[in-house]
Write a structure and sequence with these properties.
Layout: E1 5-7, E2 11-17, E3 20-25, E4 30-31, H1 33-46, E5 52-58, E6 63-64, H2 66-73, H3 75-78, E7 81-87, H4 91-104, E8 109-113, H5 116-127
Parallel strand pairs: 3-5, 4-6, 5-7, 7-8
Antiparallel strand pairs: 1-2, 2-3
Helix pairs in contact: 1-2
Length: 128
């Protein structure tokens, strides 16, 4: 399988393996509703228009607007996504991730990880 990568000014979408898409959010990015909508389209394209799970890897000082978080968490937005693993690499990202889980209450299964391999093991268990 060839790796598929889509790059924009704010993020990169990479197909890691069949059914697992990584979203790397670039350092300093401010993700807004339209960015999250495009990200979903790019995820679906990278996954070959099939169900997928997402590994979200934020860079430093990444921000999601309140509207973007609400949209990403909503039932109507999900479509082909089955689960989301948030890879946390800083205290700021941990605070943002916990806030997202507690306040926005994502519709799909979402967990926070500090270990990339553990996150991938969990995602593989869902997509199989």
């Amino acid at each position: 399988m060839t790796s598929k990568k889509i790059t924009t000014a704010k993020y990169e979408v990479t197909l890691l393996e069949d059914g697992i898409v990584e979203n790397f959010i670039k350092s300093g990015a401010v993700m807004e509703e339209q960015d999250v909508t495009m990200l979903k389209q790019h995820n679906f394209e990278a996954a070959g228009q099939k169900p997928y799970v997402i590994l979200v890897t934020p860079g430093e000082l990444v921000t999601f607007t309140s509207e973007a978080r609400q949209l990403a968490a909503s039932k109507n937005f999900i479509e082909a996504a089955r689960a989301k693993a948030l890879l946390i690499n800083s205290i700021g990202n941990k605070i943002m991730g916990n806030f997202y889980l507690k306040v926005n209450k994502p519709f799909i299964k979402t967990k926070i990880f500090s270990d990339r391999e553990k996150a991938l093991v969990w995602l593989r268990s869902i997509i199989k």
